[in-house]
Design a protein that fits this description.
mainly alpha; 99 residues; 2 domains
């Protein structure tokens, strides 16, 4: 990633020379990418970019309901399963003493 950013920095003058951006290119996101590699090493992946949470939600919302379906027109069954599981989860949250 660092090499790619360096290449971009070296070649972005083409836009200025071609008259596309006569005053040069100043993109704040590009500047922030220069610090990205170091910040990931220091603090880990940014919020929302870690795939483990997405993967676990996918398993919970798609794979497990798929296994419970009879595989014939499964989408409706999967949605109903998720709806029922959500209601059970909400009931348990509202009534913790009942388990």
């Amino acid at each position: 990633m660092d090499d790619t950013l360096r290449q971009f920095e070296d070649k972005r003058s083409v836009f200025e020379e071609a008259g596309i951006h006569p005053n040069g290119i100043s993109i704040p996101q590009i500047h922030s990418l220069q610090h990205y590699h170091e910040l990931v090493q220091l603090f880990g992946s940014p919020n929302g970019l870690c795939s483990s949470i997405v993967k676990s939600k996918h398993i919970q919302a798609v794979k497990n309901p798929w296994k419970r379906s009879n595989k014939h027109q499964a989408l409706g069954q999967m949605l109903l399963t998720n709806q029922r599981l959500d209601k059970l989860s909400q009931y348990r949250a509202d009534h913790p003493a009942e388990g």
